[in-house]
Amino acid sequence: MRAPYRSAxxxxxLARNVLVSVTLEDGSxxxxxxxxxxxVTGETQSIVVGAARDAAPGLxxxxxxxxxxxxxxxxxxAPGTFGALEMALLxxxxxxxxxxxxxxxxAEEEAPVEAVTDLSLPLLPxxxxxxxxxxxxxxxxxxxxxxxxxxxxxxxxARVRAVAEAAPxxxxxxxxxxxxxxxxxxxxxxxxxxLLPRIALFEQPTRAGDDAALAFVSARAPVPVFADESAHTxxxxxxxxxxxxxxxxxxKVAKSxxxxxxxxxxxxxAAGGQCLFGCMMETRVAVGAAxxxxxxxxxxxxxxxxDLDGHLLVDDGACVEGGFxxxxxxxxxxxRAAGLGLVARHAPVL
Length: 350
Hints:
Helices cover about 40% and strands about 20% of the residues. The chain folds into two domains: about 5-100, Enolase-like, domain 1; about 115-340, Enolase-like C-terminal domain (TIM Barrel, Alpha-Beta Barrel), CATH 3.20.20. Helix 6 runs parallel beside helix 7 (about 155-165) and helix 11 (about 255-270) packs parallel to helix 12 (about 285-295). It is an alpha/beta fold.
């Protein structure tokens, strides 16, 4: 990590990810990445490596469409493993076709090639959070996501206020990472009620799996509540949004793979909800794949929010070259580059 990153669930100083590559018969090579978080999917780096090694021999010699179908059917069971393999195969197939990945995923040729992301601020003392927020605002970030739920109510309030003051033009998004009781989540919003016009959403304030707690907050909160760790499948999105437990869901390739994230987005939209496309502590491999899918889903043309900043948090310069461009809060792909448009080093042969 470029700096330690603390949320309500963990402190990350080293991103323990898995990089895989897939090569087609015509020599086209694609890359995939897993950023497993045990508290989200139950997977670890060693689990993903072992499962990928077990799965790889069964993919050799298969037709691309058949293997993609097989991987898509397994993503929900082990997204770290099968999502990374799926990502790599889709990248390879797009390169083989000479198309950027977003076009291979269905984006029209004239569709936008750029979108706006937020920047996430970890659990920091108020003074440090203010300094980071001021720097982010100077760099052009118009949306800031603030981690809350670390256990100290006063610290949460001070952090939010410090960020709001340091970046007075920024829209704010709160991320609880399951750190609140329903009552405390509402109390936090009450304590910062003067900032509510600037708060766009409150992400996963309560424990995953407790739909009633999430619904309690959503019904009473003056800002939209989004589900992250609670939403892994299209069925989750339909149940949570349709049942009033939240107004939107967070998409992540680390939770659902590319095919699963696309299915969740469609289910959320059909249920009348919104999506925030987020990430874990990922390099430009997985963040780039998420960006391409977001563009294929219409980012830049419709209200799909982006929280794709992993490449700004991890130090990936030694393992990834190329990929999308990041200018302030604008992420832009090269429409002339095939696949993800990058080269990843050290991808193992499984």
